[in-house]
C-alpha cells in the first residue's frame, strides 16, 4: 500500500479526451488512483470490470460507468470493447441545468451505484454523437466549444435512455445540489446540520426534510457516510495510522473515531483494513 493515493490529471491543454479502445491501445491505470476529472466508460459487451471506491462492478453491455472527481478508481480488467469520455471539472459552463444533469449522472456521494444501465436503449443516437465527438477530437485544430456542445448532447441522451434516472434531471430541488457540494467541501471540519442550513438560509428541520425527500437520508447521515467513505479509502489505499486518519478527518480524539467507525461499520478500522487487504 502507498502513503498517498495517486492523483491523475488530464494533459495540459486537453480539457476532454475521447477514446475508442477498439481502435487504439489505451494505457490503463491498474494501480488505485484518484481522478480530478469526470470519466464515462461505455461497455459494449460483458467483458472486464471496474473497482470504484474498493467495490467491484462487472461490465455489462449497455452499462456506462460514471466516475466522479475524488473517487478512487482501479481497472483490474477494462476490456478492449469500450468507449471512454474524460473531461475536466471546469469544461462546462456553470449553469443550473448543467448541474442537474451532472447530479443525475455522477452521483458519487448520493447512495447510488457509480454506473447507469441503458439495456441497449438509445444506442443509435449515442453512437452517432460519440462518432462526431471522436472525429472532432482527432482534428489538429479541435474546436473545444463544439466538443462541449456535443458532449452536452451525449450526456443528455444518456440521461434520457437510462433505465432508472430519467426523471432525476428535472425533479431535484436546487438546494440539494448545493448542500451536497457544501458537504464535499466541509465534511472534515463541519458536522453540525445548522452550519449547512445557515449556508442555505433555511432551518435545520427544513433542510433535513428536503434531504430525506430527495435522497432518503438526513444531513447527519450524509455527513457520516462521507466521513466513512474517506476513512475507508485511506484505510485501504494508504499506510497512514488509524490515528493519523482520524486527525485528518477532524476527530481530535482517535478513540472517539474508533467508536464512531465501529458503530457505523460493525468493525474497527484496523479490522476493516485487515479484512479488505487480504
From TrEMBL:
Record-annotated HTH araC/xylS-type domain positions: 177-275
Top-rank taxon, per record: Bacteria
Coiled-coil residue windows: none
Keywords carried by this UniProt record: Activator, DNA-binding, Transcription, Transcription regulation
Protein name stated in the entry: AraC family transcriptional regulator
